[in-house]
Amino acid sequence: MKKYILFIAIGLVCFNINAQTEKIIKTSVKKAIVYLQGAQLSTTETVMLPAGNTKLIFEGVSPHLQEASLQASGKGLFVILETQYQLKYKEKTISNLVGKYTKQITIIEDSLEENIYKKSDAENRYNTLELKKNMLLANKMIKGESQKDSLPLLKEGLNFLRERLNNIMAEELKISRELKKIEKSTAALEERKQNLLNMQNGTNEDDANIQPVPQIVVSVFAEAATTAQLTLQYYIANASWTPFYELHGDGNTNMVQLKQLATIQQQSGLDWKDASIILSTATPNQNSIKPQLPIWYIYNQQVYYNENRKNIPQMQNNNEYKLQGNIATKSKETKDELLEIDAEDMSLYTTVSQNILLTEFELKLKYNIPNDGQKHYVAIQNKDLPAKYFFSAVPKLDTKAFLMAQITGWEDLNLIPGNAKIYFDGNLAGTTAINPDITSDTMLLNMGRDNSFVIHKRRLKDERKEKIIHDEVIKTYTYEVIIKNTKTIGLNMRVEDQIPLVQQGITDVQVVLKDADGAKFNEQTGKLSWDYKLAAKESKKMVFSFEVHSPKGRVLAGL
Asked: Could you tell me which of 72, 89, 96, 381 has the C-alpha nearest to residue 230?
């Protein structure tokens, strides 16, 4: 007997261990790491676990998650056995009262059968009228073919025909209306019958429009009842952030205020409510395999020529202020005093971190990003940078001057390429682009176009020279550039121009700079640059010239 009781006790223990309970947990996005393309979403929930196996079913996850990226981790005295993603479809429940709608269906079927008889009767009457009409029209007397025809008899026959035909056609019209009503009644009865059949079978017309519920199922085991903290994270592709900038210049200071902002958009199937947001420069979907150099071969290349041209290759919100910036608590400041304090932006609540591979911008305040695919703006950082202002002109391409800012200290800002809006003295001055992919310690920023300079460039005709020495032709080109400062203050001006370079591979043509008029000359690019301090209303003239040496008969292009 004792052995029997012990056997039962052991069986009950084994049953409790192997029994698996289920818990459905409603969750939401608690944290989102948004990449330039894609996002990693995560949620953390605290759950009470009983002893034994438990299946935790998390609802409120994205239907667009990439299953291969799904990960589960936790803290507590339990073991994570398995993690999987599934779609739960609505189960069709059949009513216990199978015959609930039988009587109504039977009545409808009787009505449908009655409609069949009514329709048949109406069609028979209609056919009979058609037969009468045809017989009248076929009568010889009506046709005037009778041998006893006379005019009075013909008139009498026509009057008879008209009267009978009118009666027949009126009766046919009445029957046609009757048939139409029978058809409408039959269609309505058929629809009602089908709806009753659907309800009797536990189906509904809206079932096809109900979307399946995405779920993450995590199977866990605990030796004893415990509190567990479980974290789920997964990747989605349809989210992104885009950096952009604002450059604020001030004519009274040698500083440029650089604001780095971002637009975030997502269509994960979920609204991100009060979520922690991190903007990352990582590219998780990009190929990370180092390329291998192939063997480099040199080979002969055949040059093809145009037949017509010989020798030419073809080629959050409450009433108390809790922010830790410039705003004091509401209890310490009056309303008027608060209105004197500048409003803060998100850049004060963003932490920038960098590791060997990527840069992350963590927004310290919770954010709401709805599932609408629209752009939502956030501020990342706001820095004042030392700047040297000057104007620059390229008369060959544009007769206007451009304000430039040469900034330093930008290397520590972890900038990435993006478009920028330019503001100067509080006014929108234009747009530009920021490209931090440079090796120089200084960065040149375009701060906008200026119309306060008069700029002219022309080629001096009387300075053209051409002479032939043996089989060599030497041509001289001379250009004049005039710039006038129409402002009432002195300004720094840089003027840029160029002389041509000979295309690589051509050895019998040479370009020689004869007069640079004090310009700095870059032999590698052919660029000339003059730096001047232009006083108020002052004009400056620059004249430069160069020679082109080429064989006699050679036609040169590009001059």
From this structure: 72
Give which of 215, 247, 519 is closest to 395, Cα–Cα.
519
- 410 in helix, strand or coil? helix
- The whole-angstrom separation of Cα 172 and Cα 41 is 72
End-to-end CA distance of the chain: 115
Q: What is the largest CA-CA distance in the chain?
A: 131
Average pLDDT over residues 50-63: 94
Return the ∠ at Cα 383 (arms to 381 and 386), rounded to 5°: 160
- 455 pLDDT tier (thresholds 50, 70, 90): very high
DSSP secondary structure letter of residue 305 = B
DSSP 472: E
Q: Which two tokens stand for residue 393?
A: 């002109």
Give the amino acid at 294. Answer: P
Strand partners, 495: 393, 530
Grouping H, G, I as helix, E, B as strand and the rest as coil, residue 161 is helix
Q: What is the mean pLDDT of the chain?
A: 79
What letters, b where the CB count within 10 A reaches 16 and e where it falls short, cover 420-434? Answer: bbbbbeeeebbebeb
Say if residues 232 and 43 touch (Cβ distance below 8 Å): yes
Kindly tell me if the per-residue pLDDT of 549 is higher than 60. yes
pLDDT tens per residue across span 222-281: 999 999 999 999 999 999 999 988 888 876 778 888 888 999 999 999 999 999 999 998
Mean pLDDT across 48-64: 93
Q: How many of the other CB atoms lie within 10 Å of CB of 320? A: 7
Give residue 284's region: left, alpha or beta (phi > 0; psi -120 to 50): alpha
The answer to whether residues 421 and 246 touch, using CB atoms and an 8 Å cutoff, is yes
pTM: predicted TM-score of the whole model, two decimal places: 0.58
**Do residues 250 and 342 touch, judged by C-beta distance below 8 A?**
no
Sign of the alpha-carbon torsion through 364, 367, 372, 375: negative
